[in-house]
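Hi V.,

Quick status before I head out on leave. The structure for the redesign project is tokenized and pasted below; the design run finished overnight.
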């Protein structure tokens, strides 16, 4: 899958599920529950126990309609390992040139984190197809409109502050797609293995996104 195809799939999906959890044994039921609810882009963070093996498993056990990537990538070593595990994209909460270098050399899209206009543009000019604006809840949707006004070519993904019901509003504010973790990955549901609740959360999220597009 080419970089353009990965980016196109993320845009079409509108949302990236950020998977953080304590029990790695339920990774596939979680992915299936999210898929059932309409979420097709999954970021497995390196904070999850045994994350590299989970990425390998998820990539091998899902079809092309599910896109598996890695998050919380903080170093060159992390980046190399997640790509070796099969991750189709890299997400980091920060911008580090060494991570971008790995992504470019391995032909994998990278979404580094940035906060200020200068950081966002620097990440873009370093080759980031999408820039993760983090933490977005401290900035708000008006910030996206302000950034996009003088730099409409930027593709931005808010993470932090995205809810199940306001995702569409972020898209209308200029976001390329949204990254959503805690609001989607309900801790109580994960603890109780209530996968139906995760599906309902995903459906509510996608309803917000689809309403914004219609």
């Amino acid at each position: 899958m080419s970089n353009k195809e990965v980016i196109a799939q993320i845009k079409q999906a509108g949302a990236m599920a950020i998977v953080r959890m304590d029990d790695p044994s339920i990774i596939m039921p979680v992915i299936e529950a999210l898929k059932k609810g309409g979420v097709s882009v999954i970021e497995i963070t390196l904070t999850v126990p045994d994350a590299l093996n989970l990425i390998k498993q998820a990539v091998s056990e899902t079809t092309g309609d599910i896109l598996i990537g890695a998050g919380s990538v903080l170093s060159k070593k992390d980046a190399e390992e997640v790509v070796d595990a099969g991750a189709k994209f890299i997400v980091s909460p920060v911008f580090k040139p060494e991570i971008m270098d790995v992504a470019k050399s391995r032909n994998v899209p990278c979404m580094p984190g940035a906060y200020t206009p200068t950081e966002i543009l620097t990440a873009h000019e370093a080759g980031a197809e999408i820039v993760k604006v983090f933490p977005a809840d401290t900035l708000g949707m008006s910030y996206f409109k302000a950034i996009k006004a003088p730099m409409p070519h930027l593709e931005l993904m808010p993470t932090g502050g995205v809810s199940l019901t306001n995702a569409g509003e972020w898209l209308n504010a200029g976001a390329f797609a949204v990254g959503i973790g805690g609001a989607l990955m309900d801790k109580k549901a994960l603890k109780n293995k209530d996968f139906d609740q995760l599906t309902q959360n995903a459906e509510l999220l996608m309803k917000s996104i689809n309403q914004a597009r219609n």
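Above is the designed sequence. The CA atoms of residues 73 and 123 lie 15 Å apart.

G. will cover questions while I'm gone.

Best,
W.
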